[in-house]
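tool_call: predict_structure(chain=1)
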Amino acid sequence: SESRAEPETGASNIVSTVNLGCPLDLKFIALQARNAEYNPKVGVYVHKIREPRTTALIFSSGKMVCTGAKSEEQSRLAARKYARVVQKLGFPARFLDFKIQNMVASCDVCFPIRLEGLVLTHQQFSSYEPELFPGLIYRMVKPRIVLLIFVSGKVVLTGNQVQHTHTHAQ
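tool_result:
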């Protein structure tokens, strides 16, 4: 296989929250809305949309968790679409306190990484126990991001500031 000069990067999942600012009748919403189901055991209404491809967990308190977006903009757009569905069903839903809670991104630096050497030079930030997990766990302090670094050169980044910093973390 040929090696690449440029690392490949990309966000793979964004989790955001928003408060719709009103109590909701989840059973009613699930009966009226498309691609929706109500889970009374958990007290959550699950709704999916295709564009952007996301899933929302909506609670009777009006709190919502949106997952699956590939960018912060997509996550905000999806959350607004879910809020609009609730509004159209007669609830006075607003769009309060939108916040990105977590992001997962990945990249391939296109060269092998010597994990034993990395853990020795960055002991205060990293742990590497190959018999338990094949990747090195690197905990950055500022920004607070956790990287899972693999011998292959593949890196997975998680944290709520990944979108803005995954190029620096490489």
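agent: The helical segments are 26-32, 72-88, 115-121, 162-169. Proceeding to next step.
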